[in-house]
Amino acid sequence: MSAHIHALAHKPLTVLAVADFIGYPSEPQVPEEAAEEVMERRGWSWADDLVCESLLTNHGHVLFSERHIPFGFPDTRHFLVFGEVYPVDKDDDEMANGPWLFPIVDDWQKQPGWTGKRPATVEDCEGVLTRAAQAVTVCLGSTPERTIVSDAAIVTGPAMTHRIWRTPTHALVLGPHADNGPYGYLTHLQLSLTPLACAPDLPPAHDTDALNRWITAHVDW
User: Fold this and answer.
1) Cα separation of 130 and 173, whole Å?
2) CA neighbor of 10 nearest in space, from 96, 149, 93, 129
3) What is the pLDDT of residue 1?
């Protein structure tokens, strides 16, 4: 039987959302004084209540990066969150964290276009990841170079699938990741766009330990 998930909130990742995300590093840089105007024109807003120093894009996903405004920085890591998971914590049998973590997941689920399920299963989460992977595959015109059930960069929760693509300059890693919000107990389902220079060449498919290290080198910060 699958490990249970207390709660899952998510919004489908679309081909257009992936294409926009991949294009951010090559767009012109935005002067700080013009940032608010650019965000308003794009239909973006701040989403600090969901992830520290994050933005809600016009596609309804949560974007956070090493810079507040992501445009024009090819050497910067960017992360697009399309799902939020509250995993079962084996050290929290009495659900002491539930009264404050469920409302946080509620905040994600209240975003436009987001839906939720509670309780959920690992299979539910894997279904969200699989559909997101289909959007990335269509956008890039290629299937993942590596697919691995991995617990890389996860603080809490069961191992789930990571998928890896590469462009000439960037790694795209789709999968679960520890949240970068103020709580530390939830798990993002996210697409990462990070410079390939973060790690050496992609390890062979059979070397799971090296792949875990490669994933962590690109998505951890």
Assistant:
1) 13
2) 129
3) 42
Provide the residue type at 22 as one letter. Answer: I
Closest CA to 10 of 178, 183, 92, 126: 126
Q: Can you tell me the distance from the alpha carbon of 101 to that of 129, in angstroms, rounded to the nearest whole number? A: 22
Query: pLDDT digits over 147-195, tens only?
Result: 999 988 887 788 999 999 999 999 999 999 988 655 568 999 999 999 9
Do residues 176 and 87 touch, judged by C-beta distance below 8 A? Answer: no
- Output the average pLDDT for the chain: 90
Paired strand residues for 121: 4
Total-model pTM: 0.93
Coil, helix or strand for 60? Answer: coil
Give the number of C-alpha atoms closer than 13 A to the C-alpha of residue 78, restricted to the C-beta side.
27
Count of CB atoms situated within 10 Å of the CB of 120: 22
**62, 81 contact by CB (below 8 A):** yes
Other Cβ atoms closer than 10 A to 196: 15
First to last CA, the chain: 33
d(CA 136, CA 131): 9
Pairing of strands 62-65, 78-87: antiparallel
Q: Could you tell me how many residues make up the chain?
A: 221
